[in-house]
Amino acid sequence: MMSLRKTILSNFLEDIWNRGLEDKLSEYLAPEYVIHHDPGDPWHGKTLDIDGFRQRLLVSRAPFPDQRFDIQDMLEDGDKIAISWLWQATHVGELAGIPATGRVIHMSGLTIYSFSGDRLSGHWQMVDRLGVFQQLSAS
Amino acid sequence: MMSLRKTILSNFLEDIWNRGLEDKLSEYLAPEYVIHHDPGDPWHGKTLDIDGFRQRLLVSRAPFPDQRFDIQDMLEDGDKIAISWLWQATHVGELAGIPATGRVIHMSGLTIYSFSGDRLSGHWQMVDRLGVFQQLSAS
After folding, report:
1. Is residue A129 within 8 angstroms of chain B, CB to CB?
2. Cα atoms found within 13 Å of the Cα of residue B32, Cβ hemisphere only
3. Where does the pLDDT of residue A95 fall: very low under 50, low under 70, confident under 90, or very high at 90 and above?
4. Alpha helices, H only, chain B
5. With a cut of 0.90, is the ipTM above it?
6. Cβ within 8 Å, pair B110-A108
7. Each residue of B59-118: pLDDT tens digit?
8. Residues of A in contact with B78 (CB under 8 A)
9. String of DSSP letters for A2-29
10. Overall pTM > 0.90
11. Which domains are delineated in chain B?
12. How many CA atoms within 13 Å lie on the side-chain side of A126?
């Protein structure tokens, strides 16, 4: 059976990132959420409150509204959970100067999430941004 | 105190990747080592025996002989350990068609290692290859 925190993280990815249910952010997030490390993310190194995270969610999902994270593995140890994931989405809006291509883009990555009680309080992440760029710019 | 497997993984990174002690590979590796996922690595998706891993080690370390992994976090759950890491190395040999620049390159990433008993049997990894490429090609 999945631990409570693994269940919370799995629901967070489904509700927030896959479905974009921004009204549920206050159920999942601690008052301060720290993006410890996330190269390429405009919020790398920043501390966000719930409204700041909502802004990040809206901007990040805008080019990829049908995006889907599929968790491959979850490892829980102390106050943290590491996940490996695959992601796919249709590119329907401008991203980093590249207009919508209509292509289905695939990405993968790993994230370590930190918890404060039963709320998410930050992450350390690496995504395959070179792979995404290659798919968007391929002729 | 660190668990046995966390200690083994920490020693593996130090002995094998930081110091290049290829003669110690047989102490750390299971007979088959599976590179489940590692975009950009020439051995992505392959299963290696110890000689195959030695070849990967030699080729990978050649442009960066003073390379150093510094573990940031370790999470152990079941038969797996996830780590986040920083890496730095001086670029002294050809890499993907780019001749030695003499630059000190910084990289970061996350890896989930699988164990079989006290031996490493594979990994799922994401490294910031775009960041490396940008540092190597900057004018």
Report:
1. yes
2. 5
3. very high
4. 4-12, 25-28, 50-61, 129-137
5. yes
6. no
7. 999 999 999 999 999 999 999 999 999 999 999 999 989 999 999 999 999 999 999 999
8. 75
9. --HHHHHHHHHIIIIIIT--GGGHHHHE
10. yes
11. 4-137 (3.10.450.50)
12. 24
